[in-house]
Design goal:
Radius of gyration: 31 Å
Largest sheet: none
Structural class: mainly alpha
């Protein structure tokens, strides 16, 4: 077979040059057999012998060879290493032109070839963006082609729609209206192929909304017909549509203006009703999507109090017993966004012992770094935004202090800072109750490490010194500070390039000297 392949490749180069159709076709047949037998090896040989640049000349709607050529391209482009060479050989423009062809076999093979070339290849998507492929695919879609052809179009559309430029082209070409039509035709059907089309169409719709320009074009100030249609999916009884509707809202909620408009027009209530339906039914993907949407909507400051008044935190807390990490992660993020600058809500949640106990449990979820990180951040946020002694006591009694001390050593500076500020408030509000946990978690040693580490950001050094001053009222912590010669460490920081750090170093040195 290897000998036959080499011979066929040589013949193909000669035959395509003299346009002998019979010999070209026999060569193509041999290539297809070789690809079917060992795709990778045959593809490597095709690349090595420089056959790809010969193929554009063989791609014509009038040529009987075209389906086989397109089939060969589709087969070689299954291999990631062949996609860029296909682009460089100039195969995209002639393939896109073939989308005009009426021959159904050519159309199907062309669709396969295009779908495989553009799959996971940024260079191909950039070249696609310079063609009229968006218009051609939407035109094909509108021709009411049968199921198999629609599937082919979907296979090309899905990877293409990952490119933001092409997203906008597809929206402008009218793809969204086509997708909404597919949804309307299939949403009440129990047929397997209809349900598959519904999923593909609604997923593709959500994908188009990931582009900032395409999303804003469809939002149309919250008055767009597409936006309104997508909203109507949320209260439906179809899980796929509920999921797509919630994900679409999450995607529309990517700037403050959109978020404020959506909260003012009652979208939060729709999401809460959806979540309520899934407390018992427990569809994890719908729960995750609805919580994602609520988290995004809670980002603008003006939305927080409105969402809290609407009862968002109460509904979100119903999922506290979820054992699914994606739901846990979004639940934590939603609550953290809601309480930002909202002292009353932070007090209410921070004195909820069940919540704090669950957070402490999730702070140990080493298999799920995202959940562990968000739990720590919410624990810190409850203290920072409430500045409440009751919240501090609930966290101490729930065993949260050691996790905040560990968080101070995080590789993420923002998390380090949040931990240090929360620990500073614990020390200021109830040092006596926290003393044992501070000692057990080696807080003083952690602060020493942060202050002596040259990589520590100025904010970290500043807040570490604030915390050192705050724990000096505890005898055992005071002794640890003295034993580690903190005065020498702080003295060096008086010449720090950051003036705030240098000033705090002087103040801290004075305090340590006075209490030594």
């Amino acid at each position: 077979l290897a000998d036959n392949l080499s011979e066929a490749l040589k013949m193909l180069k000669l035959s395509s040059a003299c346009s002998s159709n019979d010999s070209v076709e026999s060569c193509l047949d041999c290539l297809l057999k070789a690809l079917a037998h060992n795709n990778v090896e045959a593809s490597e040989k095709i690349l090595e012998m420089g056959v790809l640049p010969q193929l554009p000349a063989l791609l014509s709607s009038q040529s009987s060879c075209t389906p086989k050529v397109a089939n060969i391209i589709a087969e070689v482009a299954k291999n990631e290493f062949m996609r860029s060479p296909c682009v460089e050989a100039g195969l995209i423009p002639p393939l896109v032109q073939l989308l005009n062809c009426k021959d159904q076999e050519i159309l199907l093979q062309t669709g396969r070839a295009l779908g495989n070339i553009c799959y996971d290849s940024q260079s191909s998507k950039e070249q696609f963006a310079s063609t009229n492929i968006a218009e051609e695919l939407v035109r094909l879609f509108r021709k009411q082609v049968e199921h198999e052809k629609k599937e082919m179009i979907f296979e090309v559309l899905a990877p293409l729609a990952e490119n933001d430029v092409i997203k906008l082209q597809l929206v402008e070409a009218g793809l969204v209206e086509c997708l909404l039509e597919v949804v309307a035709q299939t949403m009440d059907s129990d047929r397997e192929e209809d349900m598959a089309q519904l999923k593909t169409a609604s997923d593709l719709m959500v994908l188009l909304l990931l582009g900032d320009e395409s999303m804003q074009k469809l939002f149309e100030g919250g008055k767009g017909s597409v936006f309104q249609r997508v909203l109507s999916w949320v209260p439906s009884n179809n899980h796929q549509l509920q999921l797509a509707g919630a994900l679409a809202i999450a995607n529309f909620a990517r700037n403050d203006g959109n978020c404020i408009h959506m909260v003012d027009t009652g979208i939060v209530q729709k999401l809460l009703e959806l979540l309520d339906r899934h407390v018992e039914e427990g569809n994890v993907t719908v729960q995750h999507a609805a919580l994602s949407a609520l988290r995004n909507l809670a980002i603008p400051v003006v939305n927080k109090s409105k969402m809290l008044s609407a009862g968002v935190s109460d509904v979100v807390l119903k999922f506290l017993q979820s054992e699914m990490p994606p739901v846990q992660f979004k639940l934590l993020g939603t609550l953290r966004m809601l309480i930002d600058t909202q002292a009353d809500a932070a007090v209410q949640l921070g004195t909820n012992t069940k919540l704090v106990e669950r957070l402490v449990e999730w702070c140990e979820a080493k298999d799920h770094a995202g959940v562990m990180g968000e739990s720590n951040r919410l624990l810190s946020a409850l203290i920072r935004h409430s500045k409440s002694k009751d919240v501090v006591r609930t966290v101490i009694q729930g065993g949260g202090v050691k996790h905040l001390v560990s968080m101070a050593m995080s590789e993420h500076m923002i998390m380090q800072n949040e931990a240090l500020v929360a620990l500073g408030l614990i020390a200021a509000l109830d040092l006596g109750l926290a003393e044992k946990d501070f000692v057990g978690a080696n807080l003083v040693q952690v602060l020493h490490k942060l202050l002596t580490d040259e990589r520590s950001a100025p904010e970290i050094k500043y807040n570490s010194m604030i915390l050192i001053c705050a724990v000096m009222g505890s005898e055992p912590l005071h002794k640890e500070v003295q034993s580690l010669a903190f005065i020498d460490v702080v003295s060096k920081l008086r010449s720090h390039e950051n003036k705030t750090v240098a000033h705090q170093a002087s103040l801290t040195e004075q305090k340590l000297t006075a209490q030594s």
